[in-house]
Specification:
Jelly Rolls, about 160 residues, 11 strands
Length: about 160
């Protein structure tokens, strides 16, 4: 069994009422998540046929101005197998991670969210994966925007 990765570009699907901002930082395109408003972005893809059970969401973030405090990240999955409806989204319980802000604004911080709530995900499923900063969580104490800089999905493979 080996681990494989899916590199995720800046997503094109965002919360229609409170979308994260798309901005630039250090000449890079980043998604900016507010400290006081729940915002999300979403990726849609087909899970590879070699998927074998383990999933983690990994990425890099930085803070616009904060040098202390925490951000709470949520990853949610909605999976649909062959011949299942996708029109009524029902995401599984969020996979959450609390990350300490880097000590210097603008510095990169790596993070990994181990995902166990996968909505019965199996190989070849249609996947909607939602990423958000949980601004309403009392543990999210870092001020200002959090920038999502990179993202990838790591999964176990049977080949």
């Amino acid at each position: 069994m080996a681990n494989r990765e899916i590199l995720l570009p800046i997503p094109t699907t965002v919360d229609s009422s409170n979308p994260p901002g798309l901005t630039t930082d250090a000449e890079d395109a980043v998604m900016a998540f507010d400290a006081s408003t729940q915002e999300y972005c979403r990726w849609t893809f087909q899970m590879p046929g070699s998927f074998d059970g383990f999933v983690s969401f990994e990425g890099q973030l930085s803070m616009d101005t904060a040098t202390s405090g925490n951000v709470v990240l949520n990853i949610e999955f909605m999976a649909a197998s062959d011949d299942e409806a996708i029109g009524s989204e029902s995401f599984d319980t969020a996979n959450a991670l609390t990350v300490a802000a880097p000590g210097t604004a603008g510095n990169v911080k790596n993070f990994t969210v181990t995902c166990t709530n996968l909505d019965s995900l199996v190989a070849d499923d249609y996947i909607k994966m939602k990423f958000s900063r949980d601004a309403a969580d009392g543990s999210d104490t870092a001020t200002g925007d959090m920038f999502l800089r990179t993202a990838k999905l790591r999964y176990s493979s049977n080949c």
